[in-house]
Write a structure and sequence with these properties.
The protein has about 240 residues and is α/β, with parallel strands linked by helices. About 25% of the residues lie in helices and about 30% in strands. The protein has seven helices and nine strands; from the N terminus they run E-H-H-H-E-H-E-H-E-H-E-E-E-E-E-H. The chain has a nine-stranded mixed β-sheet with strand order 2-1-3-4-9-8-7-5-6. A hairpin with a 4-residue loop joins strand 7 (about 165-175) and strand 8. Helix 3 (about 30-40) packs across helix 7 (about 210-220). It is globular. The structure holds zinc ion. Zinc ion binds next to loops.
Length: about 240
């Protein structure tokens, strides 16, 4: 799907509570991602935030979303379990999900992956990150260089407590010595899930054109697939006369 209906969900607390972070993301992280995707030709983008009724994710919004982006950090515990259950169900039914950065610890992500947490090692040291694209034939790698260098990011390191990805498209190196699986793909039910590591709130990562290109590729890849509904239960022999 070239122009999926995207909803960018953001917790939207750091940008409200901290002036320095607001100066990095004056329109919020959701606003930056929306603008960057629009710059890459996507035209059907909505945003939703934690403090809106139903976190901005009513049944109507979810039903009309092809791909949901998810950024959260300090308020994972405030996300209502009924909304988490709805997102879970929509993904199983085919909605794509792009989980960003600290979303590794979100209820939505761990519920879908079946993990207790998405624990990892981390450090805020403004280190350089080099994201290596290790599967150049993957649709999310379309138009991307061999690696993407981000001058300053939060460091994440293995082990990252996730089930082995169905496809591992990117690995990050950090100047402090860690490595990290930073571009991971899974399928759950009919839905596709992509986890993308970069995007700490203090750095303008989501405003850079190359990251916009990558996130757009992820949205296209995660878009619902139109395929047959399977028949379950007791059935007659197809060869019966
Ligand atoms: Zn962070």
């Amino acid at each position: 799907m070239d122009n999926p209906r995207i909803t960018v969900w953001n917790e939207y607390r750091h940008e409200v509570l901290d002036k320095e972070i607001a100066s990095v993301y004056p329109k919020g992280i959701h606003g930056a991602i929306k603008g960057n995707l629009e710059a890459h030709g996507f035209t059907k983008i909505r945003t939703a935030t934690l403090d809106e009724p139903q976190h901005g994710l009513s049944g109507e919004i979810l039903e009309s979303t092809d791909v949901l982006f998810w950024w959260g950090h300090m308020a994972h515990h405030e996300v209502d379990d009924t909304i988490v259950a709805k997102v879970h169900e929509r993904v199983l039914d085919g909605m794509g999900l792009v989980v960003l950065h600290s979303g590794h610890d979100s209820k939505v992500f761990s519920r879908l992956l079946g993990t207790k947490t998405g624990r990892l090692r981390w450090r805020e040291a403004q280190e350089k990150e080099r994201v290596w694209i290790i599967e150049p034939g993957h649709p999310i790698a379309d138009g991307l260089p061999e690696y993407i260098e981000i001058p300053h990011e939060e460091t994440y390191g293995e082990r990252f407590e996730i089930p082995a990805p169905d496809e591992l498209v990117m690995i990050s190196w950090f100047e402090g010595g860690e490595v990290f699986r930073s571009g991971c793909c899974w399928t759950r039910g009919r839905g596709r899930i992509f986890y993308f590591r970069p995007g700490h709130e203090s750095f303008p990562t989501y405003s850079t054109p190359i990251i916009g290109k990558l996130l757009g590729n992820a949205a296209k890849w995660a878009s619902p697939i139109q395929s047959a509904q399977h028949v379950f239960g007791m059935v007659s022999s197809m060869e019966a006369k």
